Amino acid sequence: AVGGLGYASYEIYNKRHPLEQKPFDPKKRTVVVLGSGWGAVSFLKSINTDDYNVMVVSPRNYFLFTPLLPSCTVGTIELRSIMEPIRFITQHKSRNVKFYESECTDIDPESKTISITDVSDIKGSVSNTTVPYDYLVMAIGADNQTFGMKGVKEFACFLKEVWDAQKIRTRLMDCVESAGFAKQAPEEVDRLLHMVVVGGGPTGVEYAAELHDFLKDDLEVWYPELADKFRITLVEALPNVLPMFSSQLIQYTESTFKQNKIEVLTKTMVKEVADKEIKVMDANKNLVSIPYGLLVWATGNCPRPLARKLMARIKESQTSPRGVLVDEYMRVAGAPDVYAIGDCTFSKYAPTAQVATQQGLYLASVFDNLARIEEGQNKKITPFEYSHQGSLAYIGSDKAIADLPFLNGNVSVGGVATYVFWRSVYISNMFSFRNRFLVVGDWMKSKVFGRDVSR
Length: 455
Ligand code: FAD
Ligand code: NAD
What we know:
alpha/beta; 7-stranded mixed β-sheet; 4-stranded parallel β-sheet; binds nicotinamide-adenine-dinucleotide
């Protein structure tokens, strides 16, 4: 469950032409939002632009529905179906919202300015500048954790952004086509068709599941001579995959993977990454080489350089290397008027879209209350409280798992019915009617015609 960002009625009734929006008002305070992901968009959707001027800075001019990104690596869903332009969101607001497609490279909490850099390949005469803010909302997400291991960035594929899904897709099809090349040595065919996923968290598990479906439903049909040579291995350092799910669902996932011939190597830690093989420390503490064709790296999050830079500036207050420390009102410790939400923060919750969405909504209500207090109204700002709506994951062969809070306990379910539930939850949480329409169309298209096997 990701927590609703659904826009259906809003988009129909409140859509405005940019020329009908009120202009920036110099008498109003300016809120600068960094990012266009889950936290930023949930904040933007709710912030009242009659109270504030709002400016958004992000290197991506679109929102990405990450829960369906693994499906895009194999073509079950097209990437454009899970992207929504940021202008679609800003056009609903009463006041014009400025958007700069750029990366924030520095935050100076003393002068209350940020430095931004144009990220496009075609730059105008100005590509670096500073922007002042009254309030800053950091929703910059997190980077891929590599533990500084050599070779990971060079040889592995991550799975966080649109370009990651495209890169995985290209590498996978390159491996398949090269394996079929004339007079390829048998051991080279085995290597090329060995797909290794590192990290048994939800990203690694969902990717392995989607890959399995693609191999079974499509690649084995189109490449019958290679059909018995495809292999998927999932490497996880802990004793089991998906530690955040109940033990019953962990067992169910591991047995489904076994049936689907996905080899799960638990208690196995990757130690070295080279261009054609990884070295792992196995459960018996032996160093073992695993040759691979495609390597997907999903070992969690670490802070982005901008977050690290801010934390270093105010290091007396920022004592955790794992993310920006905030108080219960999402205020950044040591930086007045700077707020942080979502994956860039270090908090007791898992870094999920569900958390980022709730924090964005909460922060918009804080800003609303601040404006009312300034008008003289008696409003109280209460701390953020997270409400867990449950966890869901796709595990392949049309099966999903769900841990859902129920009364005062928890319900763990898995199987085909849960998969139908998984689909309906994600469809209802999609950003716009357009996204829903496109995703349902993609599902139908891949069911009827199969997935596209072109590169
Ligand atoms: P993001 O959504 O990552 O957004 C960060 C934004 O900041 C981006 O727009 C980025 O371009 C921008 N940015 C980066 N650097 C800068 C900078 N220097 N200046 C300005 N802007 C910047 N969670 C769930 O709850 N359920 C799921 O099913 C689920 N599935 C997932 C599947 C995958 C494959 C992945 C990778 C994650 C999944 N998650 C899921 C986790 C979820 O995507 C994240 O927790 C969520 O994206 C965090 O939201 P955020 O706003 O903090 O960061
Ligand atoms: P994660 O932190 O959840 O899991 C990473 C896994 O990699 C861990 O189990 C860790 O033990 C393992 N690992 C780390 N180093 C390793 C090594 N050297 N060798 C082998 N294994 C190693 O990361 P994730 O799966 O990328 O997820 C990131 C966040 O996004 C999480 O909060 C997750 O809940 C969320 N997410 C949720 C969903 C969902 O709800 N369906 C899907 C994807 C991501």
